[in-house]
């Protein structure tokens, strides 16, 4: 695996899947619309602070929102690149036809795709998350405090000394809640 991007200018993303979000799959819910705007706004602020490469794990829910926000950001600023960090071939197995269609479209819009394993294993999602953090200087997370993969990724990023930006999907505040002191938005 060759990294063509400088980790100092790279941000990876982690966030909850629909079942951990208050609106579940209803993306028309005003809270979801607000969260998507907040994700774009933070991504835009990160870009203006020197980040121009973004890595997304391509899961359902917040990963999808992040991927779409960065595609819009790339349309706004031509030097933005987006990498799909795919944990294993067939990541989408078990998804609905609509979810698969959206996934394939988003992957096709990425500038680079990194597939970490040829088949699913119990560790493949953790390996994908480690890859993303190791390749980045900043972790951007949508996190509500619950246990799971997002929490583990945040903890790994803390241990790895990465800057971390956290927004809570349950918060009505428009500002990120956990910004390391060296960045201000």
Provide structural commentary.
The chain is α/β, with parallel strands linked by helices and 185 residues long. The protein has a single domain (7-167), classed as Rossmann fold. 37% of the residues lie in helices and 16% in strands. It contains five helices and six strands. The protein has helices spanning 30-48, 62-76, 97-109, 124-134, 149-159; strands at residues 10-15, 53-56, 81-86, 112-115, 138-142, 163-167. The protein has a six-stranded parallel sheet with strand order 4-3-2-1-5-6, with helices on both faces. The longest helix has 19 residues, at 30-48. The N and C termini lie far apart (33 Å).
Features:
185 residues; Rossmann fold; six-stranded parallel β-sheet
Question: How are the secondary structure elements laid out?
Answer:
Elements: E1 10-15, H1 30-48, E2 53-56, H2 62-76, E3 81-86, H3 97-109, E4 112-115, H4 124-134, E5 138-142, H5 149-159, E6 163-167
Parallel strand pairs: 1-2, 1-5, 2-3, 3-4, 5-6
Distance between the termini: 33 Å
Oligomeric state:
single chain
Kindly report the average pLDDT value. Answer: 92
The largest β sheet comes out as: 6 strands, parallel
Q: Which range best describes the helical content: under 10%, 10-25%, 25-40%, 40-55%, 55-70% or over 70%?
A: 25-40%
Q: Helix and strand succession? A: EHEHEHEHEHE
Structural domain tally: 1
Strand content: 15-25%
Taking all Cα atoms into account, the compactness measure Rg is 15 Å
Number of continuous helical runs: 5
Rough shape?
Answer: globular
